[in-house]
Amino acid sequence: MTGSSAKRLYVALIHHPVIDKNGETIASAVTNLDLHDIARACKTYGVNGYYVITPLEDQMVLVNRILGHWITGVGGRYNPTRQQALELVRVRATVAEMIGEISEAEGCRPKTVATTARRHAGSLSYRRLREMLDEAVPIVLAFGTAWGLSDTFMAEADFILDPLTGAGTYNHLSVRSAVAIILDRALGG
Amino acid sequence: MTGSSAKRLYVALIHHPVIDKNGETIASAVTNLDLHDIARACKTYGVNGYYVITPLEDQMVLVNRILGHWITGVGGRYNPTRQQALELVRVRATVAEMIGEISEAEGCRPKTVATTARRHAGSLSYRRLREMLDEAVPIVLAFGTAWGLSDTFMAEADFILDPLTGAGTYNHLSVRSAVAIILDRALGG
After folding, report:
1. pLDDT by residue (tens digit) across A59-105?
2. Helix (H) or strand (E) holding A85
3. Prediction ipTM score
4. Which of A166, A177, A179 faces B187 most closely, judged by CB atoms?
5. A85 vs B: CB within 8 A
6. How far apart are the first and last CA of chain A?
7. CA–CA distance from A94 to each of A27, A154, B170 (Å)?
8. What is the CATH number that goes with domain B9-187?
9. Which stretch of DSSP H or E encloses residue B180?
């Protein structure tokens, strides 16, 4: 297939299972700008859906309140482009729920691609990721909040993506920046 | 020269002169996460300095208080990688002051490259930007907050960079995402 075939890419921002500063598995809090910045990047690059995964009920309520403001509330009238971006957001309690939903929509189970700042043996190159998207493979790109995705999540993912590398050993991008860069590498013209 | 020569790149986040929703020239407010996310991206990609330009005295005080917390205060002990990134930030009142300071440090006036979401005739390609950096040309990449850099600023810039393009006509990245992607295109491995 060629690069013009429809891409089947989803982005998942994971708040559980992720690790804290000490390596313990936690459920992190949702950050307002993660919703906005990542939704805008997803909309710009033509991502099919942006899943926000949190098992915490109060966090689900919070996210849905923010989305309501921008999608059906006054925010959408003030800034319609923000509305269009945030319409991509789907809040779900678990990764399994997301995978089930995407499987149903796509007619097959999507491949999960975990992102990390650390190098892993046999990791997926950006060139191969682009090829898989060109081949219309449904893919979920998973990003961890806090100190990153848990080891269990990483072990269960179908692929681990090459880490982004900059100029030296410092490699502490925000998750918002990492999503933007990786979408550009995967889908940018 | 080769790609291994020292890059002489600076990032400027402009709060004046920028335009508002109606195209009027304004001075915008500083956003806390613009400091963090952009400083972290600059540090990751080896940028020489990150200038935050605002003529508003209360905003300069605010930024310096935030920087103090992370550089010499408790924030730096809690998260040393944040400290290393924020040490790149320099708050200045005007673009002219920044240009004067960089000219003195580099021994010649830097080229200014304005960024925008709109297409301009004769704009600079990312390939040519990388070449200029490889040739050790000192460059300031300027990003506008609010609704973007003013026409006056654009007209006075040495170059206007090609806009980022995604999958369709939607093109409303946050400035944080735009900086991350453009640094990756200019300096990423």
Report:
1. 999 999 999 999 999 998 889 999 999 999 999 999 999 999 999 99
2. helix A80-86
3. 0.95
4. A166
5. yes
6. 17
7. 11, 15, 30
8. 3.40.1280.10
9. helix B175-187
